[in-house]
Amino acid sequence: MLIEVREAEPGDAGRVADIHAACFAKAWSKLDIERMLLAETNSSWVLTRNGDICAFAILMWAGDDVEILTIATALEWKRCGYAKQLLCACDNAFKNNSDEAARRWLLEVAVDNLPAIALYESLGFEQIAKRRNYYRREDGVNVDAFVFSAKIGNLGC
């Protein structure tokens, strides 16, 4: 079994969109994903297992912050540690890239997404804020989000 992390390519958009649709009620289209993969302000990564995409992360540069716009693992590969491996590889890449000014990770996560919160806390992310009614579910219910932050190059990998 060969696990690799690499930068995402436009040809990955279909599989990334499929994973996103399986994981999120408000899925992004393949075209949305393609645009994000090509955006100059974004950095997108995939984790592959024997060449098949199992997880992805789409990140956005914002000054000296890198915001995790979305991260997901294919349903059949959840709880295998792939999201953690992916974030650790991204953290290492940013830490070793002296040309970039990024200093901090930022992300929002629904307060009821306990597996994701456990992942982020295990990596050393700390809650810095709470956004009320940040997400709106398909059933019309609003859900708060926690804002988490961590220092780039300092994740507990």
Task: Please tell me about this protein's structure.
This is GNAT family N-acetyltransferase. Pfam families: Acetyltransf_1. One of its GO terms (molecular function) is acyltransferase activity. The protein is an alpha+beta fold and 157 residues long. It has one domain: 3-Layer(aba) Sandwich (Aminopeptidase), CATH 3.40.630. 27% of the residues lie in helices and 39% in strands. It is globular, with a radius of gyration of 15 Å. The mean pLDDT is 94.
Tell me briefly what this model is:
The chain is α+β, with helices and mostly antiparallel strands.
Structural descriptors:
alpha+beta, 157 residues, EC 2.3.1.-, acyltransferase activity, 27% helix, Acyl_CoA_acyltransferase, globular
Strand content: 35-45%
- Whole-angstrom Rg: 15 Å
Mean pLDDT: 94
Strand order of the largest sheet: 1-2-3-4-5-7-6
Count of helical segments? 4
Instruction: Label the CATH architecture.
Output: 3-Layer(aba) Sandwich
Number of domains: 1
Distance between the termini: 21 Å
Oligomeric state of this protein = single chain
Runs in which pLDDT lies below 50 for 5 or more consecutive residues are: none
CATH topology: Aminopeptidase
Q: Please report the total strand number as a whole number.
A: 7
Estimated helix fraction:
25-40%
Shape: globular
Element-by-element helix/strand order: EHHEEEHEHEE
